[in-house]
TrEMBL record:
Keyword Membrane attached: yes
Subcellular location: Membrane
Keyword Phosphoprotein: no
Predominant subcellular localization, coarse grouping: membrane
Keyword entries, A-Z: Membrane, Transmembrane, Transmembrane helix, Transport
Membrane topology: Multi-pass membrane protein
Record field: transmembrane: 46-62, 82-103, 109-135, 147-165, 171-193, 219-241, 247-269, 281-301, 307-331, 343-367, 373-394
PANTHER family for this protein: MAJOR FACILITATOR SUPERFAMILY DOMAIN-CONTAINING PROTEIN 3, SOLUTE CARRIER FAMILY 33 ACETYL-COA TRANSPORTER -RELATED
Protein name: AmpG permease
Taxonomic source organism: Salipiger mucosus DSM 16094
GO CC annotations on file: membrane
């Protein structure tokens, strides 16, 4: 078992990269949709932002090449080099995007697509590094860094960013996020470049990953869970704006929700997984998310509940519920990944998540624009409820595995 102080130091540096990745994610998924809606863009155009998930959905195609470069047959681990190049690309994109402005939207989306490719590639290297570096810790610390880092980064990119944009303008907001990303990635670079040369015989590949039953089962569970949790996720921000709130309020609520309820949900999820197992946590999170979507549907459709009150409540509670469930899901993913090619195995799970998130986000934007928020949130609620029996069946075997771990 590695020394606790050493483990915490490693987790902290890895967590910095996860936070940095989520900063650009928060800017993309919460900040930009809110800014564009405030400028009057239609929901179907805003829904195009979901296409930026494409690199995350397809990164399994280049994950083996990244892993083979990261882990050469003889020599040092090259994770630091990959993270450095990716961070530089993202910083450059943010600075150029700041000069262009949030509109016209297509050039901004093109630049953010470059940033998405860079962060997706960095994620392959960081996940692989984490799986190997934390192999003796049963991955609890690494999973906390992943989920907690994601919500902290989302709070910065989706909360602080909007507040800066509202007070100081678009250029100031993007420049501030570029500086934050640079600072967050630096400790990882110092850690990764201290690695020692090694000899490796295993060749990372997709075939080796898909040959393992743990990976195949995990892909099915990921698909079901994403459908239940993320179908309408990208519409909470526009729904909040259309309920009469402004960008600063969206930024404050998004940031506070991620920092408080998101982190609380992640910590609570970890405790509940240890006590009750991943199966019950996953199903409980789906039921809670369905209840939230049902409340939003009742307010947005027939108007049985006040929209102005439901919109902020839905945003913060949905954040907590997603964090609660994804601790269980990503903890399983890390445990199922082979340390010799952790970047490939974990990437496959994430690609299933990203692909379905993209498709669901685009479809949700089109449905909301043409049929209203009430219809799309009702459909999302029904989909969540429909996945419960399948998730129960798919996680039965994995929960038994967790109980005997």
């Amino acid at each position: 078992m590695p020394d606790l102080r050493q483990t915490l130091g490693t987790v902290g540096t890895i967590g910095g990269v996860y936070v940095a990745q989520s900063v650009i994610g928060g800017v993309t998924w919460t900040g930009l949709p809110g800014v564009l809606r405030a400028q009057g863009l239609p929901l179907d155009r805003i829904g195009l932002i979901s296409l930026l998930v494409l690199p995350w959905a397809l990164k399994f195609l280049w994950a083996p090449a990244v892993e083979r470069y990261r882990l050469p047959a003889r020599g040092r681990d090259r994770s630091g080099r990959i993270v450095a190049l990716g961070a530089l690309a993202v910083i450059a994109v943010l600075l150029v995007t700041g000069l262009i402005g949030p509109a016209p939207v297509l050039p901004v989306l093109a630049l953010l697509m470059v940033a998405a490719f860079a962060t997706a590639t960095v994620d392959i290297a960081c996940d692989g590094f984490a799986v190997a570096a934390l192999a003796g810790t049963r991955y609890g610390w690494g999973n906390a860094a992943q989920v907690g880092g994601a919500y902290l980064g989302s709070a910065i990119g989706g909360g602080v960013f909007l507040i800066v944009v509202d007070r100081a303008g678009w250029l100031s907001g993007t420049s501030a996020m570029a500086a934050v990303i640079a600072a967050l990635c630096l400790p990882f670079l110092l850690l990764a470049w201290r690695g020692r040369p090694a000899e490796r015989s295993h060749q990372p590949s997709l075939r080796a990953a898909l040959a393992r039953p743990e990976v195949r089962r995990g892909l099915g569970i990921a698909a079901l869970y994403v459908i239940s949790q993320k179908t309408a996720m990208g519409l909470f921000g526009p729904f909040f704006i259309d309920a009469g709130y402004d960008l600063a309020q969206l930024g404050l609520l998004s940031g506070a929700g991620s920092l408080t309820l998101g982190l609380a949900g992640a910590l609570g999820g970890g405790g509940f997984v240890r006590r009750f197992g991943s199966r019950r946590v996953l199903v409980g999170a789906v039921i809670a998310q369905a209840a939230i979507l049902g409340l939003v549907a009742l307010s947005a459709g027939p108007g049985l509940l006040p929209v102005a009150g439901i919109a902020p409540l839905a945003m913060v509670t949905s954040t907590a519920v997603m964090a609660f469930g994804f601790v269980a899901l990503y903890g399983q993913f890390m445990a199922w990944s082979d340390p010799r090619q952790g970047g490939v195995d974990f990437t496959l799970f994430q690609c299933m998540d990203a692909a379905l998130s993209m498709l669901a986000g685009v479809a949700a934007g089109v449905v909301a624009e043409h049929f209203g928020y009430g219809t799309v949130f009702t459909i999302a609620c029904m989909l969540a409820l429909a996945t419960i029996p399948a998730i129960l069946g798919a996680t039965r075997a994995s929960d038994r595995t967790h109980s005997h771990a």
